[in-house]
Design brief:
This protein is mainly α and 95 residues long. It has 2 domains: 1-41; 44-89, no CATH class. The protein is 43% helix and 8% strand. It has helices at 6-34, 61-72; strands spanning 54-57, 77-80. The protein has a two-stranded parallel sheet. It starts with 5 loop residues before the first helix and ends in a 15-residue tail after the last strand.
Length: 95
């Protein structure tokens, strides 16, 4: 059994991130027109636009851990979470 090295894992993660970025770009271009959404001409000010290397949807334990690891690897990250706290199923709703 071959044990992967850290550099191999980092390069694999980099390739996966590039593939996901390409998929998100393709979805962002094709989905609106495929489902008949009308094109709107919103005008955003430059200070309203957030640009990051990676966008993680969901601030559960996996999303939060991924964001921390990617940040440690030098990537800029934004986490989109519908609740006002991170943690997902691991957070408690008890007072």
């Amino acid at each position: 059994m071959v044990c992967p090295t850290v550099s191999n894992m980092a390069s694999l993660l980099g390739a996966i991130l590039k593939a996901f970025r390409l998929v998100w770009i393709c979805l962002a271009i094709t989905l609106p027109s495929a489902y008949g959404f009308e094109k709107h001409s919103y005008e955003y000010k430059p200070e309203d636009i957030i640009t990051r290397d990676v966008c993680i949807i969901g601030g559960g334990s996996t999303g939060t851990y991924s964001a921390i690891r990617l940040r440690d690897m030098g990537k800029s990250v934004v986490v989109v979470e519908k609740k006002d706290v991170l943690g997902g199923h691991t957070s408690s709703s008890a007072p």
